[in-house]
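Thread: assembly with ligand

MN 10:42: here's the input set. Chains plus the small molecule as SMILES. Want everything predicted jointly, not piecewise.
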Amino acid sequence: MPGQLRKVIIVGAGPAGLLLALRLAQHNIKVTIFEATPSPSEQPRATHYGPPAVYELRRAGVLAEMQKDPDCFRMNRMCWRKLDGTYLSGFDQNDLDQDGKTYEDRTTVLALNKVVKVLGTLVGQCEDAIVKYGHKVLPGVEQDSDKAWVTVQRVADGVEEKHWADYIVGCDGAGSQVRRSLFGDWEFPGYTWDKQIVATNTYYDFSKFGWEDSNFIIHPDHLFMAARISETEQLWRVTYTEVNGLTNEEIQARQATKFKEILPGNPNPEEYKVVLTSPYKIHQRCAPSFRVGRYLLAADAAHLCNPFGGLGLTGGIVDVGGLADCLIGIHQGKTSDKILDEYSRVRIEKYRTIIDPISTENFKRLYDQDADKALEKDEFLKMLKTIEGDIEASRKVQLGSLGILHDFTTDFDGKSSSYEQNTLGSKLEKVDNATVTITPVVN
Ligand SMILES: Cc1cc2nc3c(=O)[nH]c(=O)nc-3n(C[C@H](O)[C@H](O)[C@H](O)COP(=O)(O)OP(=O)(O)OC[C@H]3O[C@@H](n4cnc5c(N)ncnc54)[C@H](O)[C@@H]3O)c2cc1C
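BT 11:07: finished. Tokens for the full assembly:
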């Protein structure tokens, strides 16, 4: 069906770019993705997708494909512990099930490289989407009342090409070229944490110590997170902090001592196997605007948060779901392009009022208190303790994360919502931000 939009260019074939391409192509919008690298990334990053992201993945038809992977599973329990392994408090996602029916948007676990593969396959099946790997978008902004352009360099031979589209969406990650072209190289307001984090994929049997699917350990120097990332084997994401300024070699050299100190059972290296180690700098940052004319930003290109809140890609996927609704609405003549200003305004507000403060609190909780006093002083852990066994209260707390969703179709001129009723029976946008307590969905 012909529509208003002739073509959308997406910069970056990470999870955000691919999901956006899929949603648009499913609605007959022609999309080209330019991706600088020759193939999809294998970095050990996101593994856990919270309920708002799962909702978006489900409605795009991605969740069902992810669930075909034997390693994909729905998370059950999450908890906070002291360094000696003592359980403090936690919650159970089984509380979200009702009348014997599994809550379908429960936090879902699958390594990001596998999700990207699923997305790549689905996008590959869409006639209206093309992914061009090995095509790097260069600095520059050029737009008029009809089109916007990007200059793209073919990495293999250095040849430069110019491409136009109705809209150009930067889904090009934390170092986004699109964002830097729009606002300058250093204009990404926020800060970088003075803590070095190290993410590993480690084979070790935490379950023999009675550990939950996801565990956060509170300690000023040895905070860490251990979360199961495979349904079929004892593969865990262990993410810990290190002192600043170490080289990768120094981080590797200190790992055995660190693991002996922090892991339950104080194992020697022959008792576990680390298959991936990646040091990361972490940030809390948000672009000044997610729209400048025909250029748009989404996900890490637009905002960053520390991964201990598990709100990084979860927030990015929600951006993409909302942006896709807006572009589809424009394509179908249901709304004007003013909706894109609303996209920028709402998503920045969600970052500032929910994602940034909650993810900050989630990280600080792990190092900025005495674990022995956490159940007296930490309001969140105290609250979880008091609602233990109260399934309704537990549901309410856990579904607070739906507050990061926003239904842009209700902002279309006089058009009613196309969002589904959620399983609490209320419209998603009715979740009250003021009462949101987002439980971290992990690493
Ligand atoms: C250790 C760790 C654990 C995490 N765990 C979680 C988690 O459990 N849950 C969660 O929700 N989030 C998590 N996150 C965050 C999550 O991984 C990121 O938010 C997510 O990967 C961002 O996706 P994206 O598509 O926006 O960007 P990216 O995945 O960074 O993709 C951007 C793409 O753009 C390409 N690109 C860049 N520049 C150009 C250019 N000039 N031209 C063309 N292409 C370009 C890049 O090559 C890349 O492929 C974690 C992060 C870390 C570091």
